[in-house]
Every structure is written in C-alpha cells, then in structure tokens.
Amino acid sequence: MRRTGAHNFPAIDRVIYGKPAAEAINEEAERLKATRVFLIVSRTLNTQTDEIEKIRHTLGDKHAATFDGIAQHTTRKQAAEVALHAKEAHADLVVAVGGGSAVDLAKIVIMAMEHDIRDEAGFDPFPMGPGVSHSPFRTPAVRQIAVPSTLNGGEYNAAALVTDERNKLKQIFFHPHMMPVAVILDPALTLHTPSNLWMGSGTRSMDHGIEALCSPAGTPLADEVVLAGIRTLRDGMLRTLQQPDDFEARRLSQYGSWLASFGLQARVPMGASHGIGHVLGGTFGVPHYYCTPVIMPSLLRYNKPFTDDAQKRLAAALGAPGGDAADAFAEFVRQLGLPGRLAEVGIGEDKFGKISEIAINHRFVKANPRPFNDQAEIVDLLRMAA
C-alpha cells in the first residue's frame, strides 16, 4: 500500500467520442477560435481513403495545409522541417490524425514552432536526459489536437519521443502543454489500420497501464483506472481479432487505451519496458508496436519480487485470476499473433551489449521498480527475452 505521493492532472481540456472525426475537429477549431488548421496525417489515410478529405472539406477555409510524409520513428530533422511549413502556413492549431508517430510529431512540431528550431542541432539546447526534472521549453502559443488511428495511447501523454538521427538515439522531450488540448476518438478511422499495427499498438497501451500499476510512484486513482483499461483493452482487442469490422469492439478498444494510459496523464514514470523499447526502436529500428510483446513477459518475471501484489491484480485483469501475470501476458501476445521473442524482431545476442550500454542511463530504466545495478543485469533480462 502506497502511503505518500501526489497525483498530477494533465493539461488537456477534453476527450471527445461518439462523433465523426471531421465534425469534432471542426467544432474544436471553432471552440479554440482557430482559423489556420495545419494537419499532420497518415499518408495511408490521406491517399487511400477519403477520411482526410472529409476533414479538409468540413474545415473549409480554416484548413491551412496538410503534411503526410511521417517517419515511423519521429525525428528531429522532420520535426524542424514540418514546423517551418506550419509557420509558413501561419498555423494557429495543429491536428494529428494517425498513429503514435503522427501524434509525437505534432507534439514536437509545436515546440519547434515556439522556439524557431530549423534543424536537428536546434534541439541541442533543450536536453531532456535522466537528470532533467523541469521542461526547458517555453509554453507553446500553438496547441495540438490528436485523432488516433491506433491504440498506442501516446496521445494521453505530455511527452514526445524524438530520434536524433546523428547518433540513432531516441530521446524524450516534455512540456505539460505538449499534451493535446483535445483527443478525438472515432472508430471509423481505425478500420483502415493494419491488424498487426492495431494489435501491437494495443499492447503498447497496455504497457502504459502495466508500468504505471507496478511503479512505486503510482497513485490509487491511476491504479484503478489502468486496471479497468487493461481489462477493457483485452476484451476489445480479442473481439476485434475475431471480427475486424466490429465498430463496437473498436470503440471498446479505444476506451481501453484511454483508461490504460491514465498513468501517462498523471505523469507516473514508466519502467524498463519503455526504456529498453526506446532503444530497440530508436537505435535498432524495431517497430514500436512490437517492443512490448517481446520484452514485457520477461520484465514481469524480473520485477515480480518487487511487484508481486500489482502482478496478482494484473493477472486477474488479463483473464487469469490466481495465475502468473507474465504467462498471462505472453499468452495474450500469442493469441494476437504478435512476435513474442527478441529473435523474432531481428535482435540477437550480438546486440545485447549495445542495448544495455544505452539503456542503463535511460530515465525509465532508472525508474524501474526493481533496480538494475549494472549493464550485466540488463543483458540477463535480454537473454530471458531472447
């Protein structure tokens, strides 16, 4: 039982559900008195569906410009380039429509706009390493709205993951007002999301809930909400697996992602699954939606002596009351048809040394409920997940 702590409330106005995305975006633009809306969108949604055109049509003359060439792992270079386009378009609101990369790009674009960052090096004066506790950014004049097409849950977070391509390092940048001013949930957009991305991103959102539940810095409110989210996500994802065009199953999955990500909203620090996952993605190119399936079961086993009570509650939420949480999560991954071992995503023992060298200094690895005393202990974990 946690005896002391503090619960943070995020700088988000609202989560909107039950309306088509185009209608909700237009209403939010009017509420915020925005007249120049810059869209950062999935290329698939923009070129292979009419979803983005519906948004442009509904916005009318409030639409300023659209960008759709989003890199899978958000980069400093692209953030600076897109910020320049948004400033040239005189954008007063940025709207991200797509997966986690679109949302992260929008978050960091508004900071690049605020500070007139024009290239990769322009982010150097804003370090966000393990020892940084306060954001070095100014409060942005332009805010963003997120319309997710996956289940990642990063839209409920006031931080962005950004890769510095000069050294292939994924970094965390943070400001409370990088949190979207609104999140819009429309299951119709998700019908176009590939199944492996939908399922994999759902495990990433579940990861947010698991690491918040297991964190020593968690809160009673966050614990209860993320457990509800994990249960809801599991049900929705399994239903979607059986019936991909089931709108209610997709809506349920979106609600589960919202709840499971509540720890992010409360700024509960994540643990080693996130920290190691950032290295796997930023340095070794593993798709972000495969990082949780290959690491989480082994990390739960590593953390169990320090998180036994939390893991009992987690096992029940995963549909295995009285069982082992790591086994239950691994079985869930198997049911979804996702990779469950590092070898399945191209990570062999030859890479373990480099992963541990970077991960040992990651702020989330340092926040893991069971400490890692040295790189060798991270290598041992990676061998468990091999």
Automatic annotation (TrEMBL):
One MF annotation (Gene Ontology) recorded for this entry: alcohol dehydrogenase (NAD+) activity
The keyword Oxidoreductase belongs to this UniProt entry's keyword annotation: yes
SUPFAM superfamilies: Dehydroquinate synthase-like (SSF56796)
Keywords: Oxidoreductase
Domain Alcohol dehydrogenase iron-type/glycerol dehydrogenase GldA: 14-187
Record-annotated Fe-containing alcohol dehydrogenase-like C-terminal domain positions: 205-385
EC number, as in UniProt: 1.3.1.32
Family designation: Belongs to the iron-containing alcohol dehydrogenase family.
Stated name of the protein: Maleylacetate reductase
Species annotation: Bradyrhizobium ottawaense
